[in-house]
Write a structure and sequence with these properties.
The chain is an all-alpha fold. Helix content is 78%, strand content 0%. It folds into two domains: 45 residues; 135 residues, Tetratricopeptide repeat domain (Serine Threonine Protein Phosphatase 5, Tetratricopeptide repeat), CATH 1.25.40.
């Protein structure tokens, strides 16, 4: 439900900016500037988080882990992060700690350290039970372990919470190809 609401809000904001731009160029420009400023501030305050995501995409798991752990330390040191967490444009969770735990879990998943990955995905769920991505990732881990019934439960939970980009059979094929054939 949360993902649908956030998607609708994004669409409304884009429609408002477009409509305002058509009728009043100055106000539209101001709104575009404010959104750009928001994105800049997010990247500034959450620098270690985004450096971790960048390195994770580049499959540099150890470097990504370093940045994500630094970001967790930033969260512990700086109370202001909790007040600006709504600057981030994310439809699945606004909980920075949950997202970071999930990303650390992804680092361990990519490194094939499944127990640690599972622990971090469970920590993400403890932080935000409505965050769908850790459930999806736990489905992957259970598929790797050939526990398809448990994997299906996690995937269904993920879909119920808003992540409906994949069906079980397709995910199973992906996991078999990526993880089980590379043992």
């Amino acid at each position: 439900m949360r993902t649908i609401i956030v998607k609708l809000i994004y669409i409304i904001i884009i429609l408002l900016i477009t409509t305002i731009s058509i009728y009043n160029l100055h106000l539209g420009t101001l709104l575009a500037f404010l959104i750009g400023l928001n994105m800049y501030l997010e990247r500034f305050y959450f620098k270690n988080f985004y450096l971790g995501k960048y390195n994770l995409r580049k499959l540099k798991d150890k470097t990504a882990l370093k940045y994500f752990n630094e970001f967790l330390q930033d969260l512990d040191k700086n109370d202001d992060f909790n007040s600006i967490k709504y600057l981030q444009l994310d439809m699945y969770s606004f909980n920075l700690r949950a997202k970071t735990y999930n990303n650390i879990g992804l680092c361990y998943l990519e490194s094939k350290v499944y127990k640690k990955a599972q622990d971090y995905f469970n920590n993400a769920i403890k932080e935000d039970e409505k965050f769908c991505m850790p459930y999806y990732n736990l489905a992957i881990i259970n598929m790797i372990k050939n526990k398809d019934d448990i994997a299906r439960e996690y995937l269904n939970k993920s879909i119920k919470l808003g992540y409906n980009k994949i069906k079980f059979e397709r995910l199973k094929s992906y996991v078999d190809f990526k993880y089980n054939t590379l043992k």
